[in-house]
Amino acid sequence: MQIPTIKDFSTIGSAALGYISVAESNINIPFDIKRVYWTYYTPNEVLRGGHAHKTLQQMIFAVSGKIIFNVEDRFSNTYRFELEKPRVGLYFPPYTWREIQFSHNAVLLCLASEHYDENDYIRDYEEYKNLQNTL
Questions:
Q1: Which of 135, 114, 123, 118 is nearest to 59 (CA)?
Q2: Sheet holding 78-83, edge to edge
Q3: CA 50 to CA 89: how far, in whole Å?
Q4: Catalytic residue among 51, 53, 104, 115, which?
Q5: The domain that contains 60 carries what CATH number?
Q6: I want to staple 49 with a disulfide (CB 3.0 to 4.6 A). Which of 71, 78, 99, 115 is the partner?
Q7: Cα–Cα distances in Å, from 93 out to 16, 29, 70, 73, 83?
Q8: pLDDT tens digits, 63-114
Q9: What total of structural domains would you count in the chain?
Q10: Is 51 designated active site?
Q11: Where in the sequence is the domain holding 117, given as residue range(s)?
């Protein structure tokens, strides 16, 4: 996958008992999962993100609340995604710039293809735009 993509994960269960959704490496997640992290208690007036990754792939879920993503892919296409259902994930391929806005009760869960590496980050938007021209 080359562009950010919404994926609806199947659910098991019922309204009476609750639901479960399952993510599995290389089955419905297009990479091996090497790291999992979650973000919470983010004030809704704070804009997070402001970066892209050179090699990292991610599948991101809003397990609670609402999270808005303004995204630019490696081909300069822009997207706006809103996640607010825990069974829906947003796939981020490498070289995807993102800015993220959280509702007051949002919890973001991320499945990542790599261990943390600060050198994988592109934190300057002008640098990101220059790199797009060389991909």
A1: 114
A2: 78-83, 67-72, 97-102, 47-53, 121-122
A3: 20
A4: 51
A5: 2.60.120.10
A6: 99
A7: 37, 12, 15, 8, 17
A8: 999 999 999 999 999 999 999 999 999 999 999 999 999 999 999 999 999 9
A9: 1
A10: yes
A11: 5-132
